[in-house]
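Lecture notes, unit on protein representations.

Consider one protein chain, 107 amino acids long.
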Amino acid sequence: MFANGLSLHKYALSALPDRVMEIVKPKLPSNHGEEVLPTTSNNKRSGEESRKDNQMKECLVSMIKIGVSCSMDSSQDRMDLTDVIRELYSVRSILEELEVELVEVNF
């Protein structure tokens, strides 16, 4: 999938923070099962919708940053797991406030 020394880690890192929406699925599910498009400059959104879009983007940026940090080559450069868990709970809390339907993943 990646060529010329590019990896998923490098691809995600290069998108932070301003181009995150370019690397996530272009349609995100809403809490009603519909698909919603991320905000673009052409979309006319209410203040509340715009605020929610910004919070959603911040959550995506946080999750991509966690993934990049956890996939550093050197384990010394990786985010501490306590910080990872704290950050993920923070993201989850924001998503719950936005009424985004969360999917539980069991390993």
